[in-house]
Amino acid sequence: MDADPALERAFELAGSYLAGVRSRPVWWRLPYEQMVERLRCPLQRESLPAEQVVAELAGWADPGLAATGSGRYFGFVVGGAQPAALGADWLALAWDQNAGLLNLAPAASAAETVAAGWILELLDLPREAAVGFTTGATVSGFVCLGAARHRVLAQAGHDVEARGLAGGPPVRILAGADRHISIDLAVRYLGLGTDNVELVDTDEDGRIDVQDLRRRLSNGSGPTIVCLQAGEVHTGAFDQFAPAISAAREAGAWVHVDGAFGLWARAGNRARTLTEGVDAADSWSTDAHKTLNVPYDSGLAIVRDADAMVAAFGVHGDYLMPGSTSEPHDKTPEMSRRARGFAIWAALRAMGADGVAALPDRLHDRAVRMAEGIRRIEGARVHNEVVFTQVMASFGDDDQTEEVGRRLLADGTAAITPATWRGRKVQRISLSNWCTTEADVDATVEALSRISAEIRA
Predict the structure, then answer these.
(1) Rounded distance between C-alpha atoms, residue 245 and residue 229, angstroms
(2) Helix, strand, or coil here: 363?
């Protein structure tokens, strides 16, 4: 089979898309239901030329694509893709390596090992920690809490891997009331039960109340996991790590930090102060496809106790050709997976330590500029202290705020997404893209001002 025509056509179409991504509408133009109808047809019996299928796919998909690579995409918490990382990801797809085993793909495993060392250095986390390369922070949180489950139950004399949860002591999970829902998912996946999650009070921006944490820890006993947060998904707030971890340590608890986008603040120059004391935790989960801006399907599970990670996820078989050290699949729930480390290695190599440090600070500067611009809009209000990359705003009453968001998406200038905070409808604006400029921020503020004025009129 000659792959060249299809690959050449794909490269041409991808290049055309990237060249125009900053000028196209930022939000999609056709919703899911219409996209299904647009593509629906009987599957033909005969084969088709590969290059024809590639072109057909690009033409069909275009109106259903959001311009997440645009500097004006502020929806959810979605980063873009740096050129070096995107190029490396294309190579990873072409090489098609299975990165689950050292001896199956030595280059892929080596890239992960080197990138992991760089990450621990940049984030100033324990150098002995193990790093697993996952699909994203949700699975990374699952991996970290899986290691935590192993360790706290082993300390209680229960072998959960051999005996399961039956007969073992219940595991307490303490998490802030404004935790990310992925914590609850991980608890469910691990069979720990969401009824065992105790919600700790939080302040107006979602930071955990350390005094309430201490009180709850002292009112219970047994195997305990405390979940903290580096970057609340609405407000961007960071927990007070030093006193919270100290309280957990006194109770003998494992401490996990959900840092999906916020953990990268630790690599910054100014933003680093937000993470003071976070290195004293036991595990950390983050995304590379958010603040670091590598292509999607890229998360990191970082666990200080490498033995606990391997005990929870390691697997052995004589046919697996074991290497000289722990295998990549000992650190994640996947035995077969794509080579995620190439893109992360390329992103870090291209930016260098100074570039990585500048990125979170620059994103914070853009967020501050966005907030300042929104405050100048009549009737608008910024609801959070802008400590990192999140801006949460309203534009009048709940109905007006929702309508501003809907009209902005239809307008296509920028993308922001709705949320509810403390009973109020808000629009959440996440500054996560490496290529967002001051001009992008100003254009978004102008569009919000114009649309807000139209609604008031």
Answers:
(1) 12
(2) helix
